[in-house]
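User: Hey, my collaborator sent me this sequence without any context and asked if I could get a structure. I don't really work with proteins. Can you help?
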Amino acid sequence: MRDLASPALATPTAEPPQALPGQIVRQARKARLHRLVSPMPALIGVVAGVKEVQGAGRSLSVPAGSFVLLPEGLALTICNIPDAAGRYEAQALPLPRPLVERALARRPDLARPRTAQPQLLPALPPEARGLLTTFFAPTALPPDILALRLEELILWLALDGALLPPEAPPRLSERLRARIAADPAAAWSAPAAASLMAMSEATLRRHLAAEGAGFADLLRDTRLTHALGLLQTTDFAVARVAEESGYASPQQFAMRFRARFGLAPHEIRLVERPDDRNGAKSARRAAARAP
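Assistant: No problem. I've predicted the 3D structure and written it out in structure-token form, which is a compact way to encode the shape of the chain:
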């Protein structure tokens, strides 16, 4: 069954729109989510509950009041665990690569790590914490000023020892994932993606296969990851989340979402009761067997 986009949706655009500011992530029940890939680095601060991050040779537990710096392009296992009151909340701030490189170019003396790994930050420097609030509250500041403040935040993190590795040449699958993530509701197709990447469809499929990826799987995973983010950061109805993620059918979306994450879309927002756990495990086993 194919992922169907509404005929009214626009075709993929040549340039991704500007990155969103910081977002508040909320989740009402524990869920272990595998193979999550972010198209850009991010700084995440846990406000309530605990975030567990596994991948790239590391296993981190990020309690409330702590932060984690996540590089882009890593396939991570993320588990958000609500506190005793059933609350998980975090602040997530994307760090666009051009701003990261521009900021760190001012301090070439700082030794950057060679490999990409998640980094646990027990606390932020006071200057960085003060800047962080800028990105999570309504503001009338022009985009250029916000960009400069984001560069300042990146520099304060770097001076405190939290540095991202230099940007590696992105693989085709990573470039395509970033383009899809910027406009997941567009009417994506392999020919349209190939045209955007300035190559033939056959060449696109061949290069993706060499990287262990396929166009249909990449499209589906990017759309569902986007949908997960909408469920965690907005109060949109599930039908709207489906539409904004490129699915014309909410039923098809719900089926795909459960098969990917082991939960129905609405369950991300539901508080887990003790008698839910056995049922959730059965549902995950059933979803894993789904075609």
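In plain terms: The first strand starts at residue 23 and ends at 27. You can pass these tokens on to your collaborator as they are.
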